[in-house]
Amino acid sequence: MKTIIISLGGSVIVPKKFNLAYLKKFKQLVLDFVKKGNRMVLVTGGGQTNRDYNKAARQLSKISDQDLDWIGIYTTKLNAQLVRSMFGKLAFEKIIENPINKIKTNKKILIGSGWLPGCSSDKDAVLLAKNLKSKTIINLFDQDYVYDKDPDKFKNAKPFKKLSWSKYKKMFSMKWSPRLSSPFDPEAAKLAQKLKMKVVIIKGTNLKNIKNYLLGKKFRGTEIS
Q1: How far apart are CA 22 and CA 51, in angstroms?
Q2: Residues 80, 98: contact at Cβ < 8 Å?
Q3: Which of these, 46, 103, 110, 165, could form a disulfide with 10 (CB 3.0-4.6 Å)?
Q4: Ramachandran region of residue 110, left (φ > 0), alpha (ψ -120 to 50) or beta?
Q5: For the domain 3-224, what is the CATH code?
Q6: What CA–CA distances, in Å, run from 48 to 33, 54, 60, 151, 193?
Q7: Shortest CA distance to 50 belongs to which of 98, 87, 23, 12?
Q8: Which pLDDT belongs to residue 76?
């Protein structure tokens, strides 16, 4: 049995409003994967919902980063409940909130959320991978690759198909903040490197490309190891 952990960004689930057509197709992709005897673990992010709540909170008071993190964590739980309900009885009936506790289930679809302040749900995905003895995490991002600079601003941005963790850590800030935007959370990156895990950055909206990776076919994305 192959166990794959997917860090499912909240911006993929709810970009500005619910992307129902996407979620239905994503559901089928997961079902096809687990029908072959594999296990899929989906860890949801907060996305736009988190950003909206964070923005409102900052306008209401001088709020601490820890409180902003807690708001983000609860938005991940909301998204996790939505995704879990999408699979009905096929999924483990509990949202995995603590990624280091022993998980007792024969279900092939598991859903996790954020856990503690100081990181994004990416780190929870790494902790779950460690817990379930998986060495591979797919991080669904809003770009096809990790680039040396913002491809939306620079036409000559260079994409990377493979990166070492040491090089990745030099390219992006390794200091966590609740509003940080990076392909993979700095705290998660440090832990993944320590545990010698591979993280695959793939554009979340390109379902055919994700399927290609799961099938071991040629795909567009960046492997960090």
Answers
A1: 21
A2: no
A3: 46
A4: beta
A5: 3.40.1160.10
A6: 28, 10, 18, 21, 28
A7: 12
A8: 94
Task: At 89, give phi and psi (nearest 5°).
Answer: -75, -10
pTM, rounded to two decimals:
0.93
Query: Can you read off the two tokens belonging to residue 141?
Result: 């991002």
φ/ψ of residue 6, rounded to 5:
-115, 125
Contact in structure between 156 and 174 (CB atoms under 8 Å): no
For the record, the structure tokens of 184 come out as 């993979």
- Helical spans, DSSP H, in 91-206: 121-131, 165-171, 186-194
Instruction: Enumerate the domain spans of the chain.
Output: 3-224
Tokens linked to 157? 């941005």
Give the separation between CA 80 and CA 188, rounded to whole angstroms: 19
Which amino acid type is present at position 178? Answer: P
Res 179 pLDDT > 70: no
d(CA 65, CA 52): 15
